[in-house]
């Protein structure tokens, strides 16, 4: 009896030559409606599934291959006499190869304005069922889910297809159906607006295997969201330079997230080790970059720069003078590209500058688990501020305070940012106490701290930071408030002539 291959595919590319290869290897083909037509149109002979099962395809294709004759043919153990007897008694043939790819659920839900009914119709039932039956029985059945494997499968079948090869294909199937179901589960989590589901099936697609992780002895890869859109390292175009490393992706992402805070004006952000070392806004992108650079001309060395407007020649000339790892921007003018591509190792990335609405959650792993939370999209506007001190901040101080507040949100806690106008002049990041973070910021700002403003990501438990700020020359402070001892800091401000506003919103970043 001839060996049988069952083909039922949505993606019909490369189908006919592959099926021809199977016929040449002596297989008899069985197929579902559309696939059968494609095969016959390609001049190949194939049986309809309905001829094998004796049941027509019904319910507009909702039931076509879901039949015991198909699944017994796939699941029967060839080394089990009782299985063989049962098939014989019912006149059922073994099916030796299954070639299935699924209804395009992902592509369907990504379409603009797609209805729930259309999405549901694109949930494949018969396909995953066949794939799972065949993959479970990989000992005897070859299962193919990915058209890019067709050539290799023919080659291997020609040599008898080893157990290990069939196992590898089966393992791929289980990843594939898990991903497919993960997308469906995620779709319904969104449809039902469910927060914190009882089980979590995050599903991502490999974008790239990285040379190594944070350090050369660590393996690493970059996975992207299946629906990646908008500002993202997984959705950018690299115009120059070497492949991105693990640290590059983290740092560039940090820079991107900060620059997205300032859509209203040209802005530039320089990042080192995921903290901003210089942030500036200006009337032009070159002015913004000059300020970001001046914020800390030492730390920017080897850093990453994100800009929210096209990089023009004037900016490119400035960027070229510094050793940078990456420049990320919405676009680069031709002239700018000509200047920057003179540095072959400098990575130039173009990305959208708008955060996509689906990018809502942040996930981090801990030993034995993971934590998931909303991204910190907290935003403070002038009308939300409470002036706590006798002196109100001036209009210019207020603007600068709100600028510093947006920056401090992105600095690792304990975080202090000192800013002058729309430029950072000192950043104290990731310290185990707030006084230390402030001291780092003052030391870096030096005499630029005079008449500058200060932002603190969380409240002051004691008045010491205020006292030190006054010594450094700070004139206004923005902080969440909420300490039992807020009054001590307020009293210190009043005594030292500092204006202080409270946001009632904290921005810890661990
Ligand atoms: N319902 C079924 O019995 C069934 N059997 C196979 N399919 C899918 O139908 C598609 C192929 O259909 P056609 O050969 O008619 O173009 C494949 O994506 C396959 O996964 C089915 N469709 C969905 O559930």
From TrEMBL:
<feature type="domain" description="MGS-like">
    <location>
        <begin position="1"/>
        <end position="145"/>
    </location>
</feature>
<dbReference type="InterPro" id="IPR011607">
    <property type="entry name" value="MGS-like_dom"/>
</dbReference>
<keyword id="KW-0808">Transferase</keyword>
<dbReference type="GO" id="GO:0003937">
    <property type="term" value="F:IMP cyclohydrolase activity"/>
</dbReference>
<keyword id="KW-0378">Hydrolase</keyword>
<keyword id="KW-0511">Multifunctional enzyme</keyword>
<dbReference type="GO" id="GO:0004643">
    <property type="term" value="F:phosphoribosylaminoimidazolecarboxamide formyltransferase activity"/>
</dbReference>
<comment type="pathway">
    <text>Purine metabolism; IMP biosynthesis via de novo pathway; IMP from 5-formamido-1-(5-phospho-D-ribosyl)imidazole-4-carboxamide: step 1/1.</text>
</comment>
<dbReference type="Pfam" id="PF02142">
    <property type="entry name" value="MGS"/>
</dbReference>
<dbReference type="InterPro" id="IPR036914">
    <property type="entry name" value="MGS-like_dom_sf"/>
</dbReference>
<dbReference type="GO" id="GO:0005829">
    <property type="term" value="C:cytosol"/>
</dbReference>
<dbReference type="GO" id="GO:0006189">
    <property type="term" value="P:'de novo' IMP biosynthetic process"/>
</dbReference>
<protein>
    <recommendedName>
        <fullName>Bifunctional purine biosynthesis protein PurH</fullName>
        <ecNumber>2.1.2.3</ecNumber>
        <ecNumber>3.5.4.10</ecNumber>
    </recommendedName>
</protein>
<dbReference type="InterPro" id="IPR002695">
    <property type="entry name" value="PurH-like"/>
</dbReference>
<dbReference type="Pfam" id="PF01808">
    <property type="entry name" value="AICARFT_IMPCHas"/>
</dbReference>
<dbReference type="InterPro" id="IPR024051">
    <property type="entry name" value="AICAR_Tfase_dup_dom_sf"/>
</dbReference>
<keyword id="KW-0658">Purine biosynthesis</keyword>
<comment type="pathway">
    <text>Purine metabolism; IMP biosynthesis via de novo pathway; 5-formamido-1-(5-phospho-D-ribosyl)imidazole-4-carboxamide from 5-amino-1-(5-phospho-D-ribosyl)imidazole-4-carboxamide (10-formyl THF route): step 1/1.</text>
</comment>
<dbReference type="InterPro" id="IPR016193">
    <property type="entry name" value="Cytidine_deaminase-like"/>
</dbReference>
<comment type="similarity">
    <text>Belongs to the PurH family.</text>
</comment>
